Amino acid sequence: MKKDTLNVEVINVVKPFDPSVADAFKINRNPQLEQDSIGEHKPFKYTIFSVPVASTFTPKQIGFVGLVKPELKTIYNNFISAGYGNNQTPLVETFIHNAIKKNQDIGVYINYLSSKGGVKNAVLNDAFTDAKLAVYYKQAQDQFDWQIDLGGQLQKYNWYGLSPILKPFDPILLASIHPQQTYNTFNAGSSMIYHHAIFQGGTFEYQYFSDDYSTSENRIFLAPEFKFPIFSDHLSTQLSLDYLDGKFNQAYVNTNPLNYQFLTIAFYPNFELNRANLNLNLGLKVSYSSVSKTPQQSKFYFYPNLMASYKLKANGFTAFAGLTGDLHQNSYSEFANANNFVSPTLNIKRTNQQYKTFVGLKGLTNGVNFQLKVSYQNEKDKALFVSNPVKVISTNNKAYEYGNSFNVVYDNIKTLSLEAEAKVNFSKQLNFGGTFAFNNYNLSSQQEAWNLPQFKADLNANYTLNKWFVKTEVYVVGQRKGQSSHIFPTFTIATPQTVIQTAYVDLNFSGGYNFSDGFTVFARFNNVLNDNYQAFTNYEVQGFQALAGLTYKFDF
Q1: Which phi and psi angles does 194 have, rounded to 5°?
Q2: For a surface tag, which of 49, 356, 372, 473 has the fewest beta carbons within 10 Å of its beta carbon?
Q3: What angle do CA 486, 216, 379 make, to 5 degrees?
Q4: Where are the domains of the chain?
Q5: Model confidence over 13-70: pLDDT tens digits?
Q6: Considering just the CA atoms, what is the radius of gyration of the chain in Å?
Q7: Is the domain defined by 91-554 classed in CATH 3.40.190.10?
């Protein structure tokens, strides 16, 4: 083994080096250059060869040219609108909110509309009132946002559509009828949205609904939502709990009370797949509905939830298709809002949309934004509004027992629908559009799809010129069919007679002038053709209506 030649050396540091300015020195010697190495500059001579050229160009000094900035409109956060029209029709609408802090906001919305009547052939009071109030408070946090809502609605309507069976109307009988019905609604709810979390948030809603005939209805709805990332796609899952209970004091044909109670728990998993031109939604809906106090059964329901869309490269259109289904919980409040003249004697059921399949095309071409859609659905226990029969003529009858109210009947219905929608932006000042729908109903037990039109369309156009604005709306509704029947004098319901409600066209204009971004005057003209068409069987509408008012927008 070779001997190690490394030795240990010891270095003693007496003082570490501490540099100072005095340690630096300046070089004073300049470099010596040989004279021969410096070259001489050669002289450069030039002359101008000037040739005159004939020219008529005279330069002219101009000022600076800049871009013209468009005048920006001021967008206000609050408004108050008020107006008054014929038939003693006042209108008040306002939305006011204020940011308490940077991340907190509170607001209130109020809407009031009423009329003393004005239906041409009405022999009973046909006035109405509709008042709404909504208050909210919301707060934004780093991880989530949440909001609380409170609201209420007061609606007053009159059963003025007496059956023509009662003609000629007896003045004593008319004086004994007090046709007013009042609907009261109270709402409370909250919502929460989480950012960048699996738990996406949820909603909670409570509604209490009542009327002048001691009817009451409670509804609770709760729906949390989750979203799980799977690579670049997502699996979303929604749970829901829907509880409904209510009672009517009596049925229409007897004095037995009508009670109902439903509890539906649902689970909706959906897988979302997004690619370059293809979007897929693969899902399933599972519902369990528990029923008590009604003849329907408690059971499980399964529905597909499949949707796909594909963007065509050739023209930029998008083709879409789907297969879905759902369990819809009907309620007294929904029926009363869809038809204000229902009687407080309804049979409440669920509607089972066993399936709905559709295919369509949408896109933009030559400035026209359009959508075409064809669908086919099968619904079990679909609700239809049908006139109640006239009871024995008596001054002791309730106000809704003269063929002037509606019951709900159910049927299994298959519906083929054709729908079209288009919007054209002709210019910055003018745009127009419309929708079209045709429905073909195949019923199981009912003779007709009562009070449902086969054809519906609406057209609209908007035009602005400087501070003026005008809007036109046209509603076209096809022929509908209803029933007319009676119970007197044998107390057995006579064979109902089918009555026709003719098609109608409802033409409306509105417009106004903006004095400034914050102050506007407006006018509305409804049913310009003055057609007293029937919205429901025996219920004519007001003729020509005019209303004018002003809107003031502001900030705090």
Answers
A1: -95, 145
A2: 49
A3: 65
A4: 91-554
A5: 555 545 554 444 444 555 554 555 455 556 656 665 655 655 555 566 656 566 666 6
A6: 38
A7: no
